[in-house]
Amino acid sequence: ESWPFTPAQPAPDVLICTPLFLGRFTKGGCVKDISLFQSVDTLVVDEADLLLDGGYKKDLEAVLTVFRRSGRQGAPTQHIMVAATLPNRGSGSVDAFLERRFPEALRVRNSLMHQHLPGMQQDFIPIGYDASTRDRLNMLVDKVTEMQRDRASRGGEEAVDVGKTIIFANTVNSAKAVANALFDVGIPVVPCHADLRAAERISNLDAFRRGISSILVCTDLAARGLDIPRIATVIQFDFAPNVVAHLHRVGRAARAGRAGHAINFYGKDSEDLVSMIQESLKVAEERGSDGGLLEQAFSRNRSLRKKLRKQERSGQDTAGRATVPS
């Protein structure tokens, strides 16, 4: 594919793109005109732990290979890898890959990396082993209705300051069931999940950002890369499958020094993970730091990812019961 920039239409000073975009010009790590990459001073990879894993990895590795080759023929490009979470799960982890690829890299991290934000209050609500999908939805509707009632009772500017709410589900079907349940009782929400066209997702996120709707129902599509102001509450209708996902979800609130509230519904399959998270919160409250307890939990519940994909294909929720039809 032809490089889109020419002397008549030069490249901008800053290009923001996906690995897939640059991957089109690398041909698996080789380019016809390596000077295209030699002119780049700095390569920044945001959400590095996500982009160097799964479906993004092949494209980004090809891009990194081309930059390494271009650096041998001219001034090397500075690489900056940015991540809110960078778990080390052994030799196959992203952290281990970066250690091998950039052994002399300078690592910078703040004291809150891999920990909950200080302004975040969390409630953990067990849903019970025998709870049906309808029972779980009713629990959620009751909680959101209570929040809406409290918001309305405040009135004026104080009501506005209550902020926005994000509700996370683990699957598209579960997100649809949540949105429908809230719509049915007259609570307006906007959805964001993979079954929506990109234009719809963008429009819904814009409505949420502008405050036209104060509740977003989503999957992990909205767990990263979004800086939407004044998110006060995060609700996990389905508990996160691992600590990394949990940190990114609850990290949507309590940003920029603001207070935040996370309401976490969890079932029997998440009890061990929740116990470790609760223990880390207890230790952090007592000592000012959890002493790395969350990092120790990074490897827990990884097998749930495969389970969730299987359930998504069969139209089930995380408890193994059929979801409410949309």
Automatic annotation (TrEMBL):
One of its GO terms (cellular component) is cytosol. One of its GO terms (molecular function) is ATP binding. Keywords: ATP-binding, Helicase, Hydrolase, Nucleotide-binding. Residues 304-326 are annotated as: Disordered. Pfam families: DEAD, Helicase_C. Residues 139-305 form the Helicase C-terminal domain. It comes from the Eukaryota. This is Helicase C-terminal domain-containing protein. It comes from Vitrella brassicaformis.
